Amino acid sequence: xxxxxxxxxxxxxxxxxxxxxxxxxxxxxxxxxxxxxxxxxxxxxxxxxxxxxxxxxxxxxxxxxxxxxxxxxxxxxxxxxxxxxxxxxxxxxxxxxxxxxxxxxxxxxxxxxxxxxxxxxxxxxxxxxxxxxxxxxxxxxxxxx
Length: 145
Description:
This protein is of the alpha/beta class. The protein has helices at about 15-25, 35-45, 60-70, 105-120, 130-140, and strands spanning about 5-10, 30-35, 50-55, 80-85, 90-95, 95-100. Strand 5 (about 90-95) and strand 6 (about 95-100) form a beta hairpin.
């Protein structure tokens, strides 16, 4: 079993609780927070295998937070999955970045996180530039901006 921790960044308490419960046992511990500032603080203390990001947080846009994570020494190797109600369709993982629309199906969530955990452990050589380009493509899908 993969023991890489997972970080859930979601400002809605009910959604955050659902995501944490759905992911319990999938990887390692599941940590959570409700805004970007707390997420950056968490990443400064610990390396995560996967970070789930809400597309729009109270203090930062999810794409901007994703950029900061990729640029952080502890976040550079984390898979990133956006979870947002503004997405029209899921986006398959590319360069360690993927996205799922809300409402979520648990099977889709666990499949996406498992793929990102596999990517995290394989570190297929995706450059930060490739990962940032994927964030840019996803940013166009996130209808808020």
